[in-house]
């Protein structure tokens, strides 16, 4: 993460000093690559060093995002997946293994690895089906077309604050309710929002400007948007990132390669949503499309709830080897 931070800072400097289109393009691509690697590294690192009982909370806060602990330098030379969650020294607030009692882990099953990776990919597909990125990243444009009693940036900031607060709240409850239950509840709430409130029927994009407002606030549309975002915040926001960090644990190459593939799919879906937002809105406003999306989400989530391994109160090594 330190290397990625330095690389990102250097890319920003090159971007600021670029004088032609080629340098500008290379600098922007480099910024995206370093930022992506940093984002992946944060979730993986937090999941690795957090104590087992607090892993869901810390990873959820990192995913919200919010910005904990440093590993002792003595175990940097060995694969961290062997030691994750083995022992947590509360006096020194760090993950520290009893090296004498550890034995080399058994080999990792290829079938288990493929199953975990496929589960992570399906998780991010379900997350992308919610279209929540569309409402969070373009909140100002959406609120400009819906709210008359409040400035669009302020309304978008309120939605973002509620989203972050709900993610932090339910991330703290994840260890009590369980990952799979919370994932199922969140997906069910999103599916109900699609079927009952149909937020896409009330939404239009408007270019934000300081002097233009709608005449009357469309409260039904405001409620539908907020309920969709809050339903997404219950579990579908932080649980895919948490489970990706847990299920893609293992040797360095497998760990980062598997997590990178899963996160790349997530970013690709988010890019497609934002790039083709108007086409998506027109398609989503057709008859029965929200119902089809809701049923698809329910089926995929049901499969995940049944087939995902239980990771609560288990070390990364135990999850990795199916114990």
TrEMBL record:
GO cellular component: membrane
Database matches in Gene3D superfamilies: MFS general substrate transporter like domains
Highest taxon listed in the record's lineage: Eukaryota
GO terms assigned for molecular function: transmembrane transporter activity
UniProt keyword tRNA-binding present: no
Segments traversing the membrane: 150-170, 182-200, 221-241, 253-276, 288-308
Subcellular location as annotated: Membrane
UniProt entry keywords in alphabetical sequence: Membrane, Transmembrane, Transmembrane helix
Protein name, as recorded: Uncharacterized protein
Species of origin: Amblyomma americanum (Lone star tick)
């Amino acid at each position: 993460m330190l290397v990625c931070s330095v690389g990102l800072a250097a890319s920003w400097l090159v971007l600021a000093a670029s004088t032609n289109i080629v340098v500008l393009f290379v600098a922007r691509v480099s910024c995206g690559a370093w930022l992506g690697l940093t984002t992946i590294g944060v979730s993986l690192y937090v999941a690795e060093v957090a104590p087992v009982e607090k892993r869901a909370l810390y990873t959820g806060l990192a995913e919200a995002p919010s910005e904990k602990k440093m590993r002792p330098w003595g175990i940097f030379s060995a694969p961290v997946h062997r030691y994750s969650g083995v022992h947590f020294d509360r006096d020194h607030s760090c993950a520290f293994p009893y090296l004498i009692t550890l034995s080399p882990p058994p080999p990792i099953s290829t079938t288990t690895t493929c199953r975990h990776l496929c589960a992570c990919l399906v998780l991010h597909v379900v997350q992308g089906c919610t279209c929540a990125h569309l409402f969070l990243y373009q909140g100002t444009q959406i609120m400009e077309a819906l709210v008359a009693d409040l400035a669009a940036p302020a309304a978008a900031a309120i939605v973002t604050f509620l989203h972050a607060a709900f993610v932090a709240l339910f991330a703290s409850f994840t260890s009590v309710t369980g990952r799979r239950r919370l994932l199922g509840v969140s997906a069910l709430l999103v599916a109900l929002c699609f079927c009952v409130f149909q937020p896409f029927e009330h939404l239009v994009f408007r270019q934000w400007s300081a002097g233009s407002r709608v005449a009357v606030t469309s409260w039904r549309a405001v409620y539908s948007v907020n309920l969709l975002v809050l339903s997404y915040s219950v579990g579908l926001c932080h649980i895919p990132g948490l489970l990706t960090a847990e299920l893609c644990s293992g040797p360095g190459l497998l760990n980062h390669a598997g997590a990178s593939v899963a996160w790349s799919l997530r970013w690709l879906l988010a890019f497609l949503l934002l790039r083709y937002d108007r086409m998506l809105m027109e398609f989503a406003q057709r008859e029965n499309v929200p119902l089809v999306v809701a049923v698809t989400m329910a089926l995929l989530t049901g499969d995940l709830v049944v087939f995902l391994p239980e990771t609560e109160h288990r070390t990364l090594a135990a999850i990795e080897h199916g114990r």
